[in-house]
Specification:
The protein has helices at 17-28, 36-47, 53-60, 69-87, 90-101, 114-123, 155-163, 172-176, 188-192, 204-209, 228-239, and strands spanning 3-6, 105-113, 128-132, 179-182, 196-200, 216-219. The chain is an alpha/beta fold. It has one domain: HAD superfamily/HAD-like (Rossmann fold), CATH 3.40.50.1000. The chain has a six-stranded parallel beta sheet with strand order 3-2-1-4-5-6. Helix 6 links the parallel strand 2 and strand 3 (128-132). The longest helix is centred in the N-terminal third of the chain and has 19 residues, at 69-87. The two termini are 34 Å apart.
């Protein structure tokens, strides 16, 4: 079983999809921007490391508070087709199609919340998806619980091996002909799982970790910003619902 693993945010597209989804929802329901006030204390506590990343992620979803689950699913499907699809890097779209054509099992493995990660995976016809499982119920609660933990770092490996049949039983030859794509040093365990690694706009830590690996290459598709500050400005605009929907 040969696989091709893809991270999502800043890997398949140049943005954080949590902020992009917020942008999409607020464009449809502008009043929800007021609910960001519920998240602000958690954001400040996260800066001084008094709350965990997982707790901050739960609190960020405050803008969805009270939304019926059917409406959330509808927005997720529309978001995947109208916004995320428009922002996907053409280079990465071509890579995904190449692996599909060559018979590899394609897996989206992301820390993004499951309620839209599934819609994105279906939009791009991934064979499987793994994400941070968020418990919603009939309506989005103020602090939705996680079913398990944040799907990040080595957690991605365990979750993938549990959820995707055959991954845990890969032979050494299968792993040698498997591919991993990510922009983040947090995904070093995921990248090391594969024989071939593609680093998307990698930072210093990620580049240094694989500096002497001949099977690791860098890919730098064009982004709509030039610097980290530019990326932050984009994210702020997205959280406020002031960003374009399509790329």
């Amino acid at each position: 079983m040969r696989i091709a693993l893809f991270d999502l945010d800043h890997t398949l597209l140049p943005h954080d999809t949590q902020a992009l989804f917020c942008n999409y929802v607020i464009k449809h329901e502008p009043w929800r921007i007021l609910l960001h006030g519920l998240f602000l204390p958690f954001a400040l506590l996260r800066v001084v490391r008094l709350v965990s990343t997982a707790t901050a992620k739960r609190a960020f979803h405050s803008y969805l508070w009270g939304m019926p689950v059917e409406k959330l699913r509808k927005y997720a499907r529309q978001f995947a087709g109208e916004s995320v699809d428009g922002w996907m890097y053409p280079d990465l779209r071509a890579e995904l199609m190449r692996h599909r054509h060559q018979g590899r099992v394609t897996i989206l493995n992301t820390a993004s919340p499951s309620f839209y990660a599934q819609a994105i995976a279906e939009q791009w016809e991934f064979d499987h998806w793994v994400a941070t499982e968020v418990v919603i119920g009939e309506r989005v609660p103020w602090l939705p619980k996680l079913d398990g933990t944040n799907n990040k770092r080595a957690v991605k490996i365990g979750a993938m091996e549990r959820k995707v049949p055959g991954v845990k039983d890969q032979s050494p030859a299968d792993k040698k002909d498997s591919w991993g794509y990510s922009d983040s040093s947090a995904d070093i365990p995921l990248l090391e799982y594969c024989g071939h690694r593609i680093l998307i706009h990698p930072g210093r830590e990620l580049k240094e970790h694989f500096a002497h690996d001949s099977l690791t290459v860098e890919l730098k598709p064009k982004r709509p910003y030039l610097t980290k500050l530019g990326n932050m400005v984009c994210a702020v605009r997205q959280v406020l619902g002031l960003y374009p929907v399509r790329g």
